[in-house]
Amino acid sequence: MKIAGCSPDQVIFVTVLNALVNLGKLDDTCKLFRDMHTSNVVAWNAMISGHAKRGYHKEALEFFLKMRKCGIKSSRSTLASVLSVIASLATLDWVTSPLRGYQTMFGF
Description:
108 residues; mainly alpha; Serine Threonine Protein Phosphatase 5, Tetratricopeptide repeat
């Protein structure tokens, strides 16, 4: 995304990501996210919570796992979204193994 030769900063990207999520345009949101040169925890949270709010729980967890692979540390907001997704899932088998480390770290 370039406007008159200038690249927008992270705040603008995250603002647009949130707007697209709120409009339900997840395909456009994913495309914009891929086009970001660098992403911070706020951008990842927008993707995780956005997919979760729209009922795309598996995709939300996949974003979480990708975020962790990229070395981005989770925030409280990240964990709230992920725990909400887990609570919404009918089966916990798919999510238990990637999240076992959090049991020890946070005591749950």
